[in-house]
Write a structure and sequence with these properties.
The chain is an alpha/beta fold. Helix content is 53%, strand content 10%. Strand 11, helix 18 and strand 12 form a beta-alpha-beta unit.
């Protein structure tokens, strides 16, 4: 489908068509004529037209069509009805028209033969001085003329039957048999005529030609008049009961129905998406799943709305490729101390107090199965919660590849663990103070080419022993064990080790592989922390945390 380009002149025929449809008046905006092929126009109309029978075997047909213009709808339906009626009448009178065409071709020829036969008869009579026929000969002539008339009637009838049937049809074969019988009778009469005197034979032959042609001509004239009367009086079997009626109110769109369906489909779609996610998501959604595998869950940390906003801001900065590695991340323990996640960390602090009483040293390692589970968030805020009790805590960022703990403590990362392990600086240069009392911090330092080898150096063991002598707790944040081997090296020097798993992200199988990996390196994991726990109808919450403070 294409539209006429601007500036294309509108012909009078175009205007006539549009005026008939009632969609253009003088003085309106210029028309934009659209050209369609015949097939496109027919298919478009067929798609909007609906035809159905009213009731069973009633023969009453109802048509309906939808569109933006009432006048055009009425014009289209009326035109279809009138066309159907005319086609039905033409179909009924088609047989009479075909017969008339055939007879109109035969009449001039028969008329000419009749005139010729009369002239020959008159000429012979003048020549032979008017020979009369005997009664017997007159009887033979009448019989012969009657047979000739029947034979000609059969010829006309054969032209009609041949248009509808083949020669093998019973009706066609009966007609052929009748014609053969008449021809046989005609041959018998011709043999009788040959016995007559020559003069009488010639007069008989000429009179026969005249009478036969005259009878044929009169019969054709009668048939023509009969067919013309039949054609003029042809009435179709179709009647138009009612003209097209247009509804006063629009039939569509049904806004209320659409709104209801949209709401239902939206609700069903939402439920489907939730069920689909639940079917494909094999992540941990309750602490019981871990405990069934023999893993102790030390704490279930709820998803913090405040921390969610910080994470969304970080994601936005990453998408915009902004430099944000040096921007500080506020400690949730300080920015929102009443947050449920902080309360869960305080509960974890209590559990760790008793768990570490039996530990071989004061080093606490925090690791995890995979990146993005929230190890840095747990390590930084757990260190802050521990420091609030008066214990001297130092948080060590042992992730020398992608560690970013320094952002939680608003410290720089110019000098850190990697610089100490490579022998560039001493211990006093890497231990930094934080905004909280009793809380110190060691950043990762510059990214080295061999982090694992540096951790295996004796300097790291000496650092852990020195920090343990100066602090009550040495909290070491490590990379994920399933990504690199750094956590297995640090675990050799840690008296207690915990892993952080994330709700809906890590699977039970993934956690099981994590524990196996640590066990292969003789590192005992005390338990797990389920981070970013969400309340869902599909679980029994898995944790019980409530706001319990006085409203100001």
């Amino acid at each position: 489908m294409g539209s006429a380009p601007l500036g294309t002149p509108i012909t009078s025929e175009d205007k006539r068509i549009v005026l008939e449809l009632g969609e253009w008046e003088y003085g309106e905006e210029p028309l934009a004529l659209v050209h369609q092929t015949r097939a496109e126009a027919v298919n478009q109309l067929r798609g909007r037209l609906s035809v159905s029978e009213q009731g069973k075997s009633t023969g009453i047909i109802a048509m309906s069509i939808t569109g933006p213009s009432k006048a055009r709808i009425r014009a289209i339906l009326d035109a279809i009805g009138e066309t159907y009626l005319l086609q039905n009448i033409k179909r009924m009178s088609a047989e009479a028209e075909n017969s008339l065409d055939f007879l109109d071709e035969q009449l001039p020829e028969i008329k000419e033969k009749l005139n010729g036969a009369e002239e020959k008869l008159n000429a012979y009579r003048l020549k032979s001085e008017s020979v009369d026929l005997s009664l017997e000969t007159q009887s033979v002539l009448e019989r012969l003329v009657a047979i000739e008339g029947k034979i000609n009637e059969l010829k006309i009838k054969e032209s009609e039957i041949s248009a509808r049937f083949t020669r093998e049809h019973p009706a066609y074969r009966t007609l052929i048999q009748q014609r053969a019988s008449l021809n046989q009778e005609k041959d018998q009469l011709n043999s009788q005529i040959k016995a007559l005197p020559e003069t009488q034979q010639e007069v008989l032959r000429l009179m026969r030609d005249v009478e036969v042609n005259q009878e044929i001509y009169v019969g054709l004239l009668n048939k023509v008049q009969e067919l013309r009367i039949m054609k003029a009086g042809t009435v179709g079997s179709v009647r138009i009961i009612d003209k097209a009626l247009v509804q006063t109110e629009p039939v569509k769109p049904k806004k209320a129905l659409i709104a209801i369906l949209a709401a239902m489909l939206g609700a069903m779609g939402s439920v489907g998406v939730v069920l689909l996610k639940a079917a494909f998501n094999r992540g941990i959604d309750s602490p019981e799943q871990l405990e069934e595998q023999g893993i102790s869950v030390y704490a279930s940390i709820p998803l913090s709305e405040h921390q969610q906003k910080v994470d969304r801001l970080e994601a936005l900065k990453r998408r915009r490729k902004r430099k944000h590695d040096k921007e500080a991340i506020p400690l949730l323990t300080l920015s929102d101390p009443n947050d449920l996640a902080v309360e869960a960390l305080r509960s974890l602090r209590t559990s760790l107090h008793f768990a570490m009483m039996e530990a071989s040293n004061k080093v606490l390692m925090v690791s995890g199965p995979s990146p993005g589970v929230g190890k840095s968030f747990v390590s930084a805020n757990l260190g802050a919660v521990l420091a609030q009790t008066g214990q001297k805590v130092v948080v060590v960022d042992a992730d020398m590849r992608k560690g970013h703990l320094h952002r939680f403590f608003e410290n720089h990362n110019d000098v850190g663990l990697s610089d100490y392990l490579s022998g560039q600086v001493d211990q006093n240069a890497i231990v930094q103070t934080s905004q909280m009392e009793n809380l110190s911090f060691i950043s990762r330092g510059q990214i080295p080419p061999n982090p694992s080898e540096l951790l295996m150096h004796d300097r790291f063991k000496a650092l852990m022993e020195s920090l343990s002598a100066q602090h009550d707790i040495v909290l070491v944040d490590t990379p994920p064990i399933l990504a690199v081997t750094d956590a297995a090296i640090v675990g050799q020097l840690a008296g207690s080790s915990l892993i952080v798993t994330r709700f809906g992200v890590n699977s039970v199988k993934e956690v099981d592989i994590t524990l196996t990996r640590f066990a292969q390196n003789n590192v005992e994991i005390k338990g797990a922390i389920l981070n970013c726990m969400e309340r869902r109808a599909s679980n029994e919450y898995g944790y019980y945390a409530y706001e319990y403070q006085e409203k100001s």
